[in-house]
Amino acid sequence: MLERRITYRRNSSYRTRSNNFRPVKTPGGRLVLHLLKKKTSGTAMQGVKVARPHDFKRLSSSKRSVSRAYGGKYTAGEVKDRIMRAFLIEEFKRFKNINMSKAADKKDKKKKKSGDKKEGCQEVNTFAIEKQ
C-alpha cells in the first residue's frame, strides 16, 4: 500500500490562512503538497491589472494606474461624482451669498422707509408742542 500521510513543505506546521496547500498526485504516484497562491478579487477598475501586492509592485506603472485624475484610486464614475459634488457645492455657496446680499438690501430699504416716517412724526409732534 502507498503511504497517504503528507508533511508540510514549509516551517509552519499549522493550517493557517497563509499556509495553504493542496495535495497533488505526481506522475510517480507520490502525494505532495503544492502551495496555493493567494488570490485577489480585484479593484473593479477598468485598465488596472489585478494582482497581489508584491506582484502589483513589480508591474509597470501603466498597468497599475489609469491616466486620469485620481487614476487607479477612483473609478471614472466616482471621479465624475466628486467633480459634480464640488461644482454644486460652489454653486450653492454663490447662490446663498447672492440671496443674503439681496435680503440685506431689502432690510436696508425697509429701515430707511420706516426711519423716514418716524422722523416725520417727531417733527409733527414738535410743531404741536411749539403751538401750545
C-alpha Rg (nearest Å): 39 Å
Strand order, biggest sheet? 1-2
Q: In one word, what is the shape?
A: rod-shaped
Percentage of residues in DSSP E strands: 5-15%
Q: What's the total helix number?
A: 3
* Helix and strand sequence: EEHHH
Main sheet record:
2 strands, antiparallel
- Average pLDDT confidence is 81
Number of strands: 2
Structural class: mainly alpha
Assign a percent range to the helix content. 40-55%
Distance between the termini: 136 Å
Low-confidence stretches: none
Can you walk me through this structure?
There is one protein chain. With 132 residues, the protein is mostly helical. The protein is 50% helix and 8% strand. The chain has three helices and two strands; from the N terminus they run E-E-H-H-H. The protein has a two-stranded antiparallel ribbon with strand order 1-2. The model has no long low-confidence stretch (mean pLDDT 81).
Topology:
Blueprint: E1 21-25, E2 31-35, H1 53-58, H2 61-64, H3 76-131
Could you provide a short overview of the structure?
The chain has 132 residues and is mainly α. Helices cover 50% and strands 8% of the residues.
Label this structure with key terms.
single chain, 132 residues, mainly alpha, two-stranded antiparallel ribbon, 3 helices, 8% strand, rod-shaped
